[in-house]
Design brief:
Helix content: 40-55%
Structural class: alpha+beta
Number of strands: 16
Strand content: 5-15%
Distance between the termini: 22 Å
Shape: globular
Length: 567
């Protein structure tokens, strides 16, 4: 059963009455959405970044056409003919699922990277986490939880920001959504099975914790600073575009570097000082909030990062945890300073230097010994920031790509690229029988094919990658006709277009949101059958420019059923 993948969704066990009740509730939300758009037409504003969703239900509107349409949809949903769904789990698999869910001695988590599932005895999983927490440099035990005290200090900071007009009413209301008392964050680990010796990556689940919203607020302030750095890479596509436009000397040395456990190795005080200095420099006296308040916010997020593990309380004393919203921006800005200092102090300079958080790619026009000397100097620069490196005159791996000197390099002096998979990758794609909408399954095939298109610069490499992908999909139960037809839509000639960074269109959609059930026939047909009532009325046609779409909520997956952060 686990071989189906943790994203696998079992067929919901619901009777007709339950399904109809859910559909009626989903219709009420759809009707509310349409009435809200009608009621507030002409008052369109940019969405506030910290908007709190309203629960206000508008009354029946004066538009006869609108209300007639909604009534017709409601009637047809009430009379919908349901089919009997085919269970996508065998009885033995259902029993196995129940046994796993009720067994406290087995722990299931996804692997740190890739599609594999890690199964450990709970005792071993606890040991994996305890190894991290027994490090007195990074963590200290607490006699009791401190989330309530932290929450009070966050509230005081928010109060001061509001009283001095540094945040508006909407943001203040958004901050007030934190539960009182707040939830105590929970520590867990994801096993790095791709390492020679598997170890746990520490993660803190801080949902509804005392600093969750403060961290999101700070992240909004820091993201523009991180993205302004010269070495900044947004994602793999950004890196590939850099490779596409970069000419490289024949004897160039390719280097990929990785910071060892970056998040937990950033000294908190130094990190706060670095970020505040970068904040001042970036905003040049016109900062959204004064630096003193940013400093206090960072201190609360980092220095009061308390959590529980197996019922015991701990405080992180060094670094930042993966899991808090602002961690990536914080680490990016800190690494920007570290890399700048390293490069400034080096007599030898790289031809190119790009970084994605803690992964660095560089090109050098010097010999290997000099590159090795540079890496040694980089490792002596900072007490806690250390690098591992891969140095080659022909190829290196970076993110999900292998960069190498191939046919294109010989002809055009541009490096070649192909998709890189870790040795532990087993391509355990979610099985086709999963209770996902058909469109999602086709979308996955197309999305992964586009990734293979972007990450392969030669037609031969792309074709080979697609061939392997097709084989893996068929092994996971995908029909060969669906796979072939979908993959036929992606051709190598479209690669240049696929590498363009596209802006998301700012269009208002009208979704009917529901959970996918194979027993429910075509909802789109019901929504469209009387759409002419909307289109025939001039005002409604202006309000609802595009027809409604069916948007599916994800059902309960094996991960939702079996995986828990708390041990």
């Amino acid at each position: 059963m686990l071989a189906k993948g943790l994203k696998f969704i079992p067929t919901p066990k619901e009777n007709e009455t339950q399904i109809r009740r859910h559909l009626l509730k989903d219709f009420e939300n759809f009707a509310r959405r349409m009435r809200l758009q009608y009621f507030f037409f002409g008052e369109d504003k940019e969405p506030h970044p910290f908007h709190v969703k309203s629960n206000w239900i508008p009354p029946v509107q004066k538009s006869v056409a609108l209300e007639s349409y909604l009534e017709e949809v409601k009637v047809q949903l009430a009379e919908i003919q349901l089919t009997k769904p085919k269970d996508n789990l065998l009885n033995t698999e259902r029993k196995a699922l129940k046994t796993l869910r009720e067994n406290p001695n087995i722990n299931l988590k996804k692997a740190d990277k890739g599609t594999r599932t890690v199964v450990l005895n709970t005792v071993d999983k606890i040991r994996e986490g305890q190894i991290q927490l027994d490090n007195p440099v990074h963590y200290q035990p607490l006699e009791r939880p401190m989330v309530v005290e932290t929450s009070l200090r966050v509230q005081q900071l928010v109060k001061e920001l509001y009283e001095h007009n540094y945040i508006d009413d909407v943001t203040n209301k958004w901050f007030c959504q934190t539960p009182n008392p707040p939830r105590t964050p929970v520590f867990y680990t994801l096993t790095k099975i791709h390492k020679p010796t598997p170890v746990g990556r520490p993660i803190i689940s801080g949902c509804d914790g005392p600093t969750e919203r403060l961290s999101a607020f700070v992240d909004k302030l820091l993201q523009p600073i991180a993205q302004e750095q010269e070495s900044y890479l947004k994602d793999s596509t950004d890196f590939i575009n850099f490779i596409e436009r970069t000419r490289v000397p024949y004897n160039a040395i390719l280097v990929s570097m990785d910071v060892t456990s970056l998040y937990t190795n950033i000294p908190q005080e130094e990190g706060i000082e670095t970020v505040c200095h970068a904040y001042d420099s970036f905003y040049e006296g016109e900062s959204p909030i004064p630096t003193q308040y940013l400093k206090r916010a960072l201190e609360l997020i980092l220095q009061e990062n308390s959590f529980q593990f197996t019922g015991k309380n701990y405080l992180q004393t060094h670094g930042t945890a993966m899991g808090t919203k602002m961690a990536v921006s914080f680490a990016n800005i800190f690494m920007g300073k570290v890399e700048s200092q390293i490069l400034e102090r080096s007599a030898k300079k790289p031809l190119a230097w790009k970084r994605y958080i803690d992964d660095i790619f560089s090109i050098w026009n010097i010999n290997k010994d000099e590159v090795t000397q540079f890496i040694e100097q980089a490792n002596s620069h900072h007490q806690t920031i250390k690098f591992t490196a891969e140095v080659s005159g022909t190829e290196t791996t970076f993110l999900d790509t292998k960069v190498y000197k191939g046919e294109r390099f010989a002809k055009e002096s541009r490096l070649d690229i192909k998709t890189h998979f870790k040795a532990t990758e087993t391509f355990q794609y979610t099985h086709f029988s999963s209770c996902h909408p058909p469109g999602v399954k086709k979308g996955f095939i197309k999305g992964e094919a586009l990734r293979l298109l972007r990450t392969n610069s030669s037609k031969t490499a792309f074709k080979n990658a697609i061939k392997r992908f097709k084989t893996n999909l068929i092994e996971r139960g995908y029909p060969e006709t669906l796979v072939s037809n979908t993959l036929a839509e992606i051709t190598f000639e479209e690669r240049k277009h696929a590498l363009q960074q596209k802006q998301k269109p700012n269009t208002r959609i009208l979704p009917f949101v529901t959970q996918y059930r194979s027993s429910v026939p075509n909802l789109k047909h019901i929504l469209m059958q009387n759409w002419h009532l909307i289109q025939q009325q001039p005002l409604l046609r202006r309000i609802f420019k595009d027809p409604p779409i069916v948007s599916y909520r994800r059902g309960r997956s094996l991960k939702d059923i079996l995986v828990r952060a708390k041990l």
